[in-house]
User: Fold this.
Amino acid sequence: MLAIDPGKKLSFNRLISNGDLVIVYERHDNMKAVTVAENSVLQNRFGVFKHSEWIGKPFGSKVFSNKGGFVYLLAPTPELWTLVLSHRTQILYIADISFVIMYLEVVPGCLVLESGTGSGSLTTSLARAVAPTGHVHTFDFHEQRAGSARDDFERTGLSSIISVRVRDIQGEGFPNEFAGLADAVFLDLPQPWLAIPSAAKMLKQDGTLCSFSPCVEQVQRSCETLQNCFTDIRTFEVLLRTYEVREGKMENLNGDNNGSNGSSLPCKRRQRSGGSYAPDSTVSSVMARPCGEARGHTGFLTFARLKCL
Assistant:
């Protein structure tokens, strides 16, 4: 579970306790969130894992099943939580989240307003950025979705710095109690231009706003509205390309019958049926190549800064 040290920052308890949330890591594309319960077990393809054997171990431990298989127990960082949370809506991923936090200038102590909450992927990272003295107020018009997000923030230990409310920001705007107090506002709405005038009233002088939209037509209309009260209006599309790095074998194209390949590196040899040796035509090498499941377009991020009066 996340713990807040008022004198320092948001951090994790070093040792796993009964009731903690852990990320069970099998491989980079197979993880799940599990709440530790002393009398419970986890069953997967590697065997049966007893929760009681996890208690007292530090996060990052390698634990074994009854069959000798193993998994890693990782702390539920915002990055990992983004990969395992329940998708109630389309979510923002790490590349967009990192860009948003940087351009909104979110630092410890900030007050941030967010609409809508959705699955809470961005909200979790915003909470870590403002901790321990800041606060995130997030709004969603869907009551059940807001309730599920509230439960998730309880599980991850963030409920003390995240407040979830049910409110239609497009129709009602942000509550007046935040007028002139917000350091940053984030909008993820179908019609963000309807909420921009209210967002402008919430921001401090020189405060920043970000609007996430999947379609460029939404961006165009939002930018038209932003020009009334905002300056330094910019739109970005963040595209992330990941690579797989692994060891593999490749043909030794420069080899010859004498085993010389034009370098001082040793050349492996294989034994012929007659007992003599010949240079192996393949060599081991570490290769990097683009992942086959690289994500493309997620959405457009439009940033703007409130005009100084």
Remarks:
- Residues 243-257+268-290 form one domain.
- The radius of gyration is 26 Å.
